[in-house]
Amino acid sequence: MSNSQIVRDFIAAWNENDIDKACDMMAEDIFYHNIPMAPVNGREAARAMLKGMGEMEAVNWELLAIAENGDAVLTERIDGFTFKGGKKIALPLMGIFRIRNGQIAEWKDYFDLGDFQRQMAG
After folding, report:
1. The domain containing residue 32 runs over which residues?
2. Segment 31-75, tens digit of pLDDT
3. DSSP code of residue 16
4. What pLDDT score does 13 carry?
5. How many separate domains does the chain show?
6. Burial of 77 (0-12, 13-18, 19+ CB in 10 A)
7. Which helix (H) or strand (E) holds 105?
8. Which of 19, 49, 91, 99 is found 20 to 30 A from 26 (Cα to Cα)?
């Protein structure tokens, strides 16, 4: 399986709203950084952070572009979330994944924190 396909499968798990399935695709020692927020180390810490985002009714990550070079997979996405109660956000971002032994060993997403905060407050 290509590294790009691993990332596509990861995105598919998110779109199934299955955070546990997505987290199980991460390496035990993953480095996860949702820039500009603080980084997280380790699968279980990443799982706790992601589950701490709140209960979601639906997830729709739209993959606009994907590129692979060695162990790196770059994605341009719009990450959409519908939270319990109906609040919706759509966050444009650029992500990079590094794959090791068929698992996501590093995941960094770059996004506009102000945009995120405005959408969450609105």
Report:
1. 3-121
2. 999 998 899 999 999 999 998 877 889 999 999 999 999 999 999
3. T
4. 97
5. 1
6. buried
7. strand 103-110
8. 91
* Domain CATH number, residue 39: 3.10.450.50
Give the separation between CA 85 and CA 68, rounded to whole angstroms: 37
What single-letter amino acid sits at 119?
Answer: Q
Q: How many residues appear in the chain?
A: 122
Tens digit of each residue's pLDDT (9 = 90 or more) over 65-115: 999 999 999 999 999 999 988 899 999 999 999 999 999 999 999 999 999
- Tokens 């939270």 locate to 83
Q: How far does CA 63 lie from the centroid of its chain?
A: 11
Tokens for 7, please give them: 């990332």
- The string of DSSP codes covering 27-94 is EEEEEEEEETS--EESHHHHHHHHHTT--EEEEEEEEEEEEEETTEEEEEEEEEEEETTS-EEEEEEE
Residue of 108, 81, 77 lying closest to 92 (CA atoms): 77
**Cα(7)–Cα(96) distance, integer angstroms:** 10
pLDDT (0 to 100) of residue 60:
96
